[in-house]
Amino acid sequence: MEEKAKENGIAAMAACYQKFDPAAYLQYNYTPPRADFARKDSIVPWKLACLHRAFTEGDVSGELLVDIGSGPTLYQVMSGCEVFNKLILTDFLEVNRQELSRWLQNEGGCSLDWTPYLEHVCKLEGKRPSAWQEKAGRLRHVISDILPVDVHCSQPLAPETLPLAGADCLVSCFCLESVSPDLPAFTRALGHIGKLLRPGGHLLLIGALGESYYFGGPGVRIPVVPLSEAQVCDSLKESGYTLIRLEVYTLPQDMHVGVDDVTGVFFAKAKKE
Ligand SMILES: C[S@@+](CC[C@H](N)C(=O)[O-])C[C@H]1O[C@@H](n2cnc3c(N)ncnc32)[C@H](O)[C@@H]1O
Ligand SMILES: O=S(=O)(c1ccc2c(c1)CN[C@@H](CF)C2)N1CCSCC1
Questions:
Q1: Could you tell me the residue range of the domain that residue 253 belongs to?
Q2: What's the CATH number where 162 sits?
Q3: Which ligand is nearest to the CA of 20?
Q4: Gap from CA of 127 to ligand 2 centroid (Å)
């Protein structure tokens, strides 16, 4: 595809995000029925268990964890904050960085109460649920920065953001496929973020399968690259990763709540070659 067409596709995606509404997004995806901790088949326990296992099974270590495209969410780093001493959250939009900063400052005004997520991760770690406050304190202690990011740039973060060696681990959830105009752009973005990772470092990638759109707010319809498991595996391999594990969750019918057409969620643990 010629350069101009690539630039136009990326610009069109950026324009879609100008009306992204963090509070609505959190409401759509991170409250019941999708975020129902009482349901055995809920996606929340599944995702949090995937992240807990990936961070704690012994091969992931180092100093610095970077979350790419954090949005207004924190669930994705609640296990990792126990393994790493420094955590950088990133997002393309200032409204999302502001939402994360409000939580970090702990002065109220957050759009979602993350306590149930913190309690669940504490249970996964064998702690009593009431240890959630210590976990919140740990998370606030290790988050060192909340920075702008653009996965379509060959250098997604500002220079000098990371140590020369790169990050020890990246996590990225529902970002690349929902910000890319097509599959080649998704694969290029995977390569771009891979340059932030040290050789031998790990990527924990969570994303949507079969999704062609989602609502990022009332009337804010955002196109998504519909991915299959095979495409995820191929893109990881093409962009210099070795796949360690791929897990897939198929959304129960009653979790199709009209905010997207996602059919499943994948969890990939991969290592940069
Ligand atoms: C579907 S949300 C995912 C949020 C969160 N990670 C989660 O798990 O729900 C996609 C995020 O990608 C961000 N984004 C949009 N364009 C981007 C870009 N070019 N590079 C990086 N992130 C981008 C949006 O601001 C939004 O927060
Ligand atoms: O898997 S979710 O249902 C979920 C969470 C986020 C998203 C989707 C699905 C699908 N559309 C994405 C658009 F990018 C965003 N989930 C919501 C509850 S907590 C765990 C994650």
A1: 2-272
A2: 3.40.50.150
A3: 1
A4: 26
